[in-house]
Amino acid sequence: MATVLDKELKRQVTVDGVDYTVAVGPEGLRLTGKGKRKPEVELRWRDLVSGEAAMAVALNASLAKGQAAGKPASEASPDRTDKAAPTKRAR
Hints:
This protein is an alpha+beta fold. Helices cover 24% and strands 26% of the residues. It has a four-stranded antiparallel β-sheet with strand order 1-2-3-4.
């Protein structure tokens, strides 16, 4: 008989030379870069069983891709001024 998964179980895995922490718990599975706080991939058991797992993984990947692209140009940096530098006029 299998043991009931009632608490989170964490293990380390190395993929292509990069260390990750895998957390398996009653709610699902999380893959987080070693030393990072925000999971790179989250997969709930309910999504896996219902067949929506591929959609959930694709959504998480697209959200992460959008955050990696950075802020829009209008919010680029708070110390940048929108005023153009003054130009010298010929007399």
